Amino acid sequence: MKPIILIPMGDPAGIGPEIAAKALAREETLQRARCVVVGDRQVMEQAVRIVDLPLTIHTINEPEEGRFEERVINLIDLANVDMGQFKRGEISAMCGRAAYEYIATSISLANAGKAAAVSTTPINKESLRAAGVPYIGHTEIFGALTGTPDPLTMFEVRNMRVFFLTRHVSLRKACDMITKERVIDYVKRCTQALKQLGVEDGTMAIAGLNPHSGEHGLFGDEEMEAIYPAVEELQAQGYKVAGPVGADSVFHMALQGKFNSVLSLYHDQGHIATKTLDFERTIAVTAGMPILRTSVDHGTAMDIAGTGIASDVSMVEAIRLAAKYSPSFVR
């Protein structure tokens, strides 16, 4: 049976409702999964009108109550947007709080085994902050609400997978966080996450930080002090890991199949590599949790919200990946 995948609507003022509606109108989405949106009915009704698609909204209380057929959006309606105050394309505490509640409800349902995965739409960090939500983004919310202290972020695009040693910290702080101990911990957890996704063959590569991976200390010592010693210890323990491999080559090599994944050392290193390859089909997978989460990897696009022109390619791809990996998370 096709997996049930929950889609929290995202920030109501952004493009999330529109790309969700577009993606659910596609035959390929219907063939892959049974999708349920968690959101606000009035906002979704507006989104359907904006994208001008012949879709009917079917309100339900539980995911299994859905009518999984053509032209139907199954919606768990939290009714948490005051349309008298709602302004599309603008940051607001109301929308930040609503977006958080869609995610929290989706996680609760997935944690209870009522869905196989969650595929998220964009949220806005400023709206979350305005609402007093104590998390900076999706990963932190999922970590807290699933009891996962440090979830792993993995990007997948085509046949390339990229993990991140550091995420939302300054570049200077990211350099300080590159330690032997942290590299060892992440390689072990990333390897386990890959096994959970059904990927057991191949070698993980660790990207270099400095030009040419430092040329043995000529251009920096992070590789000599942290990465080489970590790789040696991991290999001695039987882990299939290589590195450091120059960041100007390692992603190309992974794309060609030499490595099953790459451990990127900082945020932009891996983001640039994946998004340059295929921006719309770069999908974020939050790994190492008891539930599966995939996500579009673009923002709320407040500047085009309400125009109906936002592409749903990334949303469709996020649902595809959720359907692909969800059998490993069935409980």
From TrEMBL:
Enzyme Commission (EC) number: 1.1.1.262
Any GO MF annotation of the entry: metal ion binding
A Pfam family it matches: PdxA
Protein name listed in UniProt: 4-hydroxythreonine-4-phosphate dehydrogenase
Entry cofactors: a divalent metal cation
Enzyme type, top EC level: oxidoreductase
Coiled coil stretches, renumbered: none
Species the sequence originates in: [Clostridium] asparagiforme DSM 15981
Organism taxonomic ancestry: Bacteria, Bacillati, Bacillota, Clostridia, Lachnospirales
Gene3D superfamilies hit by this protein: Isopropylmalate Dehydrogenase (3.40.718.10)
Keywords: Metal-binding, NAD, Oxidoreductase
Subunit structure: Homodimer.
Record-stated family: Belongs to the PdxA family. PdxA2 subfamily.
